[in-house]
Amino acid sequence: MFKIVKKAINRTIGRTMFKTKRVIAKKIKGLCVNYILPFVYVKSCVLPVENTALFVEIRGKEISSNYRGIIHYLRAKYPDVKIKTYFLEMGEKGHIEYYKRCKKLVKLMARAKYIFIDDCSNVIAALPIRKKTKLVQTWHGCGALKKFGLCYDATEKYYGREDIFTVSSENVIDYYATSTGLQKNKIKAIGVPRTDLFFQDKYKKRCEVIRRNFYKEHHIDENKKIILYAPTYRNHIEASVMTKKFDTKYLKEALGDEYIVLCKYHPVFSGKRSDFEDDGFMFDITDSIKIEYAMGICDALVTDYSSLIFEYSLLDKPAYFYAYDLDEYIEKRGLYIDYNDMPGPICYTLVDLAQNINSRVFDSNKMKAFRRKYMGSCDGNATKRLLELLRN
Fold first, then answer.
1. pTM of the predicted protein model
2. Ramachandran area for residue 165 (φ above 0: left; ψ -120 to 50: alpha; else beta)
3. What number of other Cβ atoms are within 10 A of residue 16's Cβ?
4. Are residues 247 and 225 in contact, defined by beta-carbon separation less than 8 angstroms?
5. Where are the domains of the chain?
6. First to last CA, the chain
């Protein structure tokens, strides 16, 4: 009896300590984000603004596709602008190390003339950006499909300081204004910089090389068609679970020898997948081929609620939507647009998916209409328009 009571007391103490630690951590976070870091920023603003473009990677460990084109254009057209990059590595470090990195970041931001971000940040949203600095949000997704920001969580304070927020079409401005709390005149339908790549000859040539090398490396018949499977990130589901939902044994039998499948998970799953079987039919390319090139080398796309469908529409190729959890996803996350408007067959089971792929169902006119509506400002000149807007 005594042992049972002792265990119950220890469990209660453990839960209490855990809750206490969470409360303390939350208060420290609020103190750093809302007071300490803004103070460091304001203090650093006594120094003059430099002719510097600062590119901030909030989560990643390498320069994003949005930034690569902008940096290249700046170096070619505006060599007087000094370029700096900073990797915040949010989620990669412990709390103390992360806020140390935040402190370094806000000091750099205080001196920069141009600041580029492509993701949200509560740290940046809390800073009183000085008037001589332009904060540019190039965002990491085109169009508007799954809800984010204030439309997903009304308590989020991750936006609001941007001077320019680039989007892919006039038709999505309202969605972004509602989600970020920004005034509509700050949301610019000038196109998304990274989509410029899709209009360049070097992109097509690079895709041909990657595809040819992939076939050669894996000893695959070059006549086989490539299906790209790129599901969106789900907060409550691991990558291995999504792999089981995408039953490769069934698909291999249903599709025959005509296809292979390349699986590209969301970047958050990088290096974290388990029990993935490379069986000569399905290949995990999450860490080996960038998404822009994966879209270029495939013959057809299978996705669900990922915003990559908007960029993919620029390529005018077949797309299939494997939405086995559509009702649950809409309830938990929410969508901006009617899912029935997606430019391809909506499949609720693998049987439906295989049948549509084998039947080669593809309505090119519907894909082009989708592109005009949601990607109308992406024509290969988004980077040029953005920098001209900034410089003028």
1. 0.89
2. beta
3. 10
4. no
5. 2-195+380-391, 200-374
6. 78
